[in-house]
Amino acid sequence: MQKNLAQTRRDEIINACAKLYETRSFRDITIKDIGELLTFGRSTIYNYFQTKEEIFLALLAREYDLWTQELNQVINSHETMTNDELAKILAHSLSNRERLLKLLSMNHFDMEANSSQERLTEFKASYGESINILSKCLEKFCPSLNENGRRDFIYSFLPFFYGIYPYAVVTEKQREAMKAANVNYCYMSIYELAYNCAKKLLS
Questions:
Q1: Contact predicate 84/151, CB 8 Å
Q2: Which of 24, 28, 91, 201 could disulfide-link 195, Cβ–Cβ 3.0 to 4.6 Å?
Q3: Residue 178 has what pLDDT?
Q4: Contact indicator for 96, 74 with CB cutoff of 8 Å
């Protein structure tokens, strides 16, 4: 019973953080802001997280877990797949994870630097599972890739995540600045960027 209450409260804290992050920046969100959305006292937050960064890191871990679950469903529901089909599925899965990409591109370093070793290790477990499931996808659907080939794909594709969001999600202010600077920029969606990258790496 006590364990269920702890998990419920932990989830509520992360959900409050996620809700605020939809309309506000990482910099502008405080633990006080998060506490105002909770059904229990703000001081209780410190039973689960010591810093704002730890809360965001837990949110990022949850996003990785959701991505892992989606890829696991792909493995269980398909027997074979062409490289192009796999590239499309990976791209689609990332287009569903805009929050994951936003967190990685803007706040990842701060989240890790200002989290305890325990919370960082918890996050790395979720991150590690995403690597494992991606490797399983490649092993099942790209049998021509050997272990080195799968590793090369993973360590090219995962770092690419950090740059997708700022390239795909562009404000009107940024568009005007690009126009004023005479930058001939081709705007692409998360899906298009991820598909092009995955397809090239798998070719």
A1: no
A2: 91
A3: 92
A4: no
